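step=encode ok
step=design start
structure_in=
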């Protein structure tokens, strides 16, 4: 059934060829909604061209510091949203080639959303390389260009249930446009494309997913330490640990990131360091990472204590689990002052901790100090939830409930059990896992159900056998007692006796 959409006139919006009236792109966030990505455009000034759907908040901040802002989108409804929120911007709707002249140059060009959301459904097919060349070509000589590229081979794609053949929403028409052979899909292909530009380029890698960016990193192709550091920060964010563990151990983190932001002719970001998180920029020297006064040794392969414990749990190696947890909890108690853990160590989740042979390190601080019991038990609950939410193998009996399992972890660490331990017990829920990860949870639960059911049937069988043996003994004793004086109705009397 066709939808009727009211079209409104906005003074700063101009419709052109290819304008799509029944269409919305802004209801799905892209990288520009993330502060880490948006900050890459902080130095942009002058006349600026933005191509594709971007966060209206980002565009508003951009317009306030620029001489002029021109935004090109394909959806009329998106143009209305941007036009009303960014009054100083000129919003053009339709095909880029029809709205902006090929010879028109700008002081900066921004496309911080993948180019697949630029082409109108009514425009002619254009390859990714052709569209990217047009966007880069609108930059004046020496003007910066910020171009975001989603990695089709990233882990967020390969572990997700997204099936382009099954998509059936408006925005999913022709889902393979610009996903042609000219699109970079490996670091080598991306390097070849940027080399052909013949201009200074810096590439930032985004992780862990395209719409959720916890860290951005650069120089991954030249620094294994930067790759390991990125792996540790991605695991800290609460994503499925096993695929990232495999990529880190294979030293292929740079190949499975969710995408890249190519900064052409931008300011030299080298002093900022190869990795940037929400908390700041990290410098890397040898196997050490530094952010301000905070210095940590970079774990080999991005291994945090979470990965160590997952492996020990899968191997049923409870002594190794106990050793890791004991060292971790002892470090917390040593850091605590008067039963309160300072903020520098209060984020004690095992995904944020690295246990070395001689020391325990915390990657990032918490927002504030916290009681020791809260810090320890929330971290143990996070470990248990991670193992159960992704259907990972563990050493606990199937009949053991979550509270008992959490208490067992606390006992391994040597943490005193609080009276309200139940408030730390989380139920397994959908945390955005992929289809395969959710199936792993289902299969793990099915195995537990089978085990419990088998045990129940075994118990019932044992009880039935016990009752039968007991009744036989009673019958034998009765027969021996009566001897040859058994009456004719002895069978009825025995049955009546046994029924009492």
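sequence_out=
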């Amino acid at each position: 059934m066709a939808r009727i959409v009211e079209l409104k006139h906005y003074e700063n919006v101009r419709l052109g060829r290819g304008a799509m009236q029944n269409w919305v792109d802004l209801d799905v966030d892209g990288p520009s909604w993330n502060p880490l990505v948006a900050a890459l455009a902080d130095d942009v000034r002058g006349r600026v061209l933005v191509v594709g759907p971007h966060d209206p908040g980002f565009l508003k901040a951009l317009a306030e510091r620029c001489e002029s802002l021109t935004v090109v989108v394909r959806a009329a409804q998106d143009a209305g949203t941007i036009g009303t929120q960014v009054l100083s911007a000129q919003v053009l709707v339709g095909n880029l080639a029809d709205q902006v002249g090929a010879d028109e140059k700008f002081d900066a060009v921004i496309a911080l959303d993948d180019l697949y959301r630029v082409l109108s459904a009514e425009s002619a097919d254009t390859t990714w390389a052709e569209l990217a060349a047009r966007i880069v070509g609108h930059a004046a000589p020496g003007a910066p260009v910020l171009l975001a590229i989603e990695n089709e081979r990233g882990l967020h794609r390969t572990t997700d249930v997204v099936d382009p053949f099954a998509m059936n929403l408006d925005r999913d028409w022709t889902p393979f446009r610009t996903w042609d052979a000219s699109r970079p899909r490996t670091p080598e292909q991306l390097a070849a494309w940027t080399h052909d530009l013949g201009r200074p380029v810096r590439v930032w890698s985004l992780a862990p997913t395209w719409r959720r960016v916890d860290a951005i990193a650069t120089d991954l192709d030249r620094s294994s330490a930067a790759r390991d550091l990125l792996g540790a920060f991605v695991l800290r964010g609460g994503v499925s640990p096993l695929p990232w563990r495999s990529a880190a151990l294979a030293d292929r983190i740079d190949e499975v990131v969710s995408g890249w932001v190519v900064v052409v002719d931008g300011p030299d970001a080298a002093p900022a360091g190869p990795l940037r998180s929400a908390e700041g920029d990290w410098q890397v020297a040898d196997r050490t990472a530094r952010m301000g006064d905070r210095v940590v040794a970079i774990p080999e392969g991005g291994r945090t204590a979470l990965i160590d414990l997952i492996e020990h749990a899968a191997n049923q190696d409870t002594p190794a689990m106990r050793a890791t947890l004991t060292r971790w909890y002892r470090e917390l108690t040593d850091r605590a002052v008067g039963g309160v853990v300072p903020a520098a160590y209060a984020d004690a989740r095992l995904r944020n901790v690295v246990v070395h042979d001689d020391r325990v390190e915390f990657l990032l601080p918490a927002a504030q100090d916290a009681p020791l019991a809260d810090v320890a038990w929330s971290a143990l609950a996070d470990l248990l939830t991670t193992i159960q939410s992704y259907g990972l193998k563990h050493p606990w009996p199937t009949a053991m409930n979550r509270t008992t399992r959490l208490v067992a972890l606390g006992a391994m660490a040597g943490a005193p059990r609080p009276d309200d331990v139940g408030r730390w017990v989380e139920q397994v829920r959908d945390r955005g896992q992929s289809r395969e990860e959710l199936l792993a949870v289902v299969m793990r639960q099915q195995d537990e159900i089978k085990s419990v059911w088998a045990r129940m049937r075994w118990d019932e069988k044992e009880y039935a056998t016990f009752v039968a043996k007991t009744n036989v003994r009673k019958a034998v004793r009765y027969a021996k007692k009566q001897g040859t004086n058994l009456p004719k109705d002895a069978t009825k009397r025995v049955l009546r006796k046994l029924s009492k």
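step=design ok
step=annotate ok -> The chain has a mean pLDDT of 85.
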